[in-house]
Amino acid sequence: MRIGVPKEIKVHEYRVGLSPASVSELVRAGHQVVVEATAGEGIGFTDQRYERAGATIGGLDEVFGAELIVKVKEPQLAECRWLKANQVLFTYLHLAADRAQTEALMSSGVTAIAYETVVGPQGGLPLLSPMSEVAGRMSIQVGAWCLQRANGGRGTLLGGVPGVQPGRVVILGGGIAGANAAAMAVGMQADVTILEKNVERMRHLVDHFEGRARVLMASADAIEENVLRADLVVGAVLIPGGSTPKLVSRDLVRRMPNGSAMVDISIDQGGCFETSRPTSHDAPIYVEEGVVHYCVTNMPGAVARTSTLALNNVTLPYVKALADLGAEAAMARDPGLAKGLNVQAGRVVHPAVREALGLPAA
What we know:
Blueprint: E1 2-5, H1 20-28, E2 32-36, H2 47-52, E3 56-58, H3 60-63, E4 68-70, H4 77-80, E5 88-91, H5 99-108, E6 111-114, H6 129-146, E7 168-172, H7 176-187, E8 191-196, H8 199-209, E9 214-217, H9 220-229, E10 232-235, H10 250-254, E11 261-264, E12 285-288, E13 291-294, H11 304-325, H12 327-333, H13 335-338, E14 341-344, E15 347-348, H14 351-357
Parallel strand pairs: 1-2, 1-4, 2-3, 4-5, 5-6, 7-8, 7-10, 8-9, 10-11, 11-13
Antiparallel strand pairs: 6-14, 12-13, 14-15
Helix pairs in contact: 6-7, 11-12
């Protein structure tokens, strides 16, 4: 099969769909790979490295002429115009918060499979997990930066110093992103609270952190009480394929201490703070109701080399299956991959995406 790898065009997005090592594996399996010129140069993957791996370097016509398109971020509207029927797109989509992209994909006729809704053999979301790990760890790093006075923050050091209490970090959601955020915050010696609804997950977190982070049931009262005391709130809630619930209202944000900070990892799916709106790496923060907000929709793009390698570790087997068998046969063989199907033949087929966008049943 012919596989196309375009250069990402989202602002400050340097990740790339296939690394040279992944290209080499696919070429050895008998597939052709066309990589857009300079697609990986931002992270040190030069055109020459791709050519040594067996890829052809080409322009947009050649890349989007392939049967399988492998990307990282959702296609921008300019890219959607290159897509067509009888073509498979494999990438993150996050359609629940993006009607314009959804409609463009429907119009193209493309078969669009979303990384974030593919389900693994033991459950879970294996293609979302590595980026959740990256975003979770980054959330504390950028949150600490937001709290610096020069960035509008209240001037709090998360770890404190002897004689001064550490900053309070509240994490909404104890999944992979939330657990990784907690691990970083604990490592910085902050005062950490995780709010989670799943009792089994709560037990796991309690055992894992061994008292270094408190774990509470995410009731409305607990969210309010802890958010109002927080220096940094991290939103790490996920509804696979669907819109994120708004767990923190504007009124609650207004009542938070001036100069506190909020990092919304869930912004790709609409965000879990009522005051959240998407930002970019060009202008990552804004102040709303006296609180510094960081809502970058492609957080892992800031550490693009690590993110690309981590993503390729999990996507390559699926890319190979799609290339070896074709989309229909690959999804028939792997029901978890089939759950990644979001758009096909002009229709949204994923139930959670349909519900989020108010579309009729397929």
